[in-house]
């Protein structure tokens, strides 16, 4: 009897979480295809794609869509170049202030983002980085540091030192050992971290809005303008346009990496 009650309670909790997770997505889908704004019913009587036409006819939407992918790709590559060596250092070496440095990457998430962006914006203004592609990339890379370093560091820790020592015993140097033994074994976790970096960059709007305007407009930035200029249904259509490629990328990643590899990589040591 007690076990049955536990199962029922657990099922209700899971169902509640699933409802709060999926209901906004379902509501987004319904609003994006709603044709009649005056209809107060939840499900529209007539379905339409006219809001997608309104959004696509707006100047700059297609360009901002391309810019979002470009910024996300560059951010991911730059973040990998910076964070992979840093993650390896945290996983393999002991140095003074290691724990302090390791947890300092939480700082970007510990403070209100808008305050952090405002402070960075003042510094960027002095460095002439406001409204530049480089300034936007720096903002996005800063946002990715915690996830990229923590997950990659965990992946490097999971690689046995015995495997590295075996490679060195047969004559491989440190660099060769890293690229032919350590990095391939840690690669699934690094790819998971890169995936989250890419998706986080695709969805970043506030920092890009503050630092990138008026020259750099990504799709989340364009969404602010659409919401102000058009009914909320047009914003829902644009949000759905951003959501679909993200879901496709996630599905491809799960197929290539496997759900188990993704979940294992999220175990922070």
From TrEMBL:
<feature type="transmembrane region" description="Helical">
    <location>
        <begin position="234"/>
        <end position="257"/>
    </location>
</feature>
<keyword id="KW-0813">Transport</keyword>
<dbReference type="GO" id="GO:0005886">
    <property type="term" value="C:plasma membrane"/>
</dbReference>
<feature type="transmembrane region" description="Helical">
    <location>
        <begin position="100"/>
        <end position="125"/>
    </location>
</feature>
<keyword id="KW-0472">Membrane</keyword>
<feature type="transmembrane region" description="Helical">
    <location>
        <begin position="61"/>
        <end position="88"/>
    </location>
</feature>
<feature type="transmembrane region" description="Helical">
    <location>
        <begin position="131"/>
        <end position="151"/>
    </location>
</feature>
<feature type="domain" description="ABC transmembrane type-1">
    <location>
        <begin position="65"/>
        <end position="253"/>
    </location>
</feature>
<protein>
    <submittedName>
        <fullName>ABC transporter permease subunit</fullName>
    </submittedName>
</protein>
<feature type="transmembrane region" description="Helical">
    <location>
        <begin position="178"/>
        <end position="199"/>
    </location>
</feature>
<feature type="transmembrane region" description="Helical">
    <location>
        <begin position="7"/>
        <end position="30"/>
    </location>
</feature>
<dbReference type="InterPro" id="IPR000515">
    <property type="entry name" value="MetI-like"/>
</dbReference>
<keyword id="KW-1003">Cell membrane</keyword>
<keyword id="KW-0812">Transmembrane</keyword>
<comment type="similarity">
    <text>Belongs to the binding-protein-dependent transport system permease family.</text>
</comment>
<dbReference type="InterPro" id="IPR035906">
    <property type="entry name" value="MetI-like_sf"/>
</dbReference>
<dbReference type="GO" id="GO:0055085">
    <property type="term" value="P:transmembrane transport"/>
</dbReference>
<keyword id="KW-0997">Cell inner membrane</keyword>
<dbReference type="Pfam" id="PF00528">
    <property type="entry name" value="BPD_transp_1"/>
</dbReference>
<keyword id="KW-1133">Transmembrane helix</keyword>
């Amino acid at each position: 009897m007690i076990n049955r009650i536990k199962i029922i309670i657990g099922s209700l909790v899971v169902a509640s979480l699933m409802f709060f997770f999926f209901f906004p997505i379902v509501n987004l889908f319904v609003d994006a295809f709603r044709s009649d704004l005056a209809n107060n019913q939840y499900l529209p009587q007539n379905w339409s794609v006219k809001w997608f036409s309104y959004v696509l006819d707006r100047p700059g939407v297609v360009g901002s869509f391309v810019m979002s992918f470009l910024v996300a790709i560059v951010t991911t590559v730059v973040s990998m170049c910076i964070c992979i060596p840093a993650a390896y250092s945290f996983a393999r070496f002991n140095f003074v202030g290691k724990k302090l440095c390791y947890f300092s990457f939480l700082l970007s998430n510990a403070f209100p983002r808008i305050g952090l962006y405002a402070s960075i914006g003042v510094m960027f203004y002095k460095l002439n980085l406001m409204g530049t592609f480089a300034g936007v990339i720096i903002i996005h890379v800063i946002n990715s540091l915690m996830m990229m370093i923590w997950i990659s560091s965990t992946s490097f820790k999971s690689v046995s030192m015995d495997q590295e020592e075996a490679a060195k015993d047969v004559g491989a140097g440190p660099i060769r050992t890293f690229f032919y033994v350590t990095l391939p074994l840690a690669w699934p976790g690094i790819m998971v971290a890169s995936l989250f970096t890419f998706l986080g960059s695709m969805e970043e709007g506030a920092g890009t809005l503050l630092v990138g305007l008026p020259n750099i407009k990504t799709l989340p930035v364009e969404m602010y303008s659409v919401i102000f200029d058009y009914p909320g249904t047009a914003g829902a259509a644009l949000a759905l346009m951003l959501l679909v490629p993200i879901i496709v990328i996630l599905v491809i990643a799960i197929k290539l990496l496997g759900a188990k590899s993704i979940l294992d990589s999220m175990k922070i040591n």
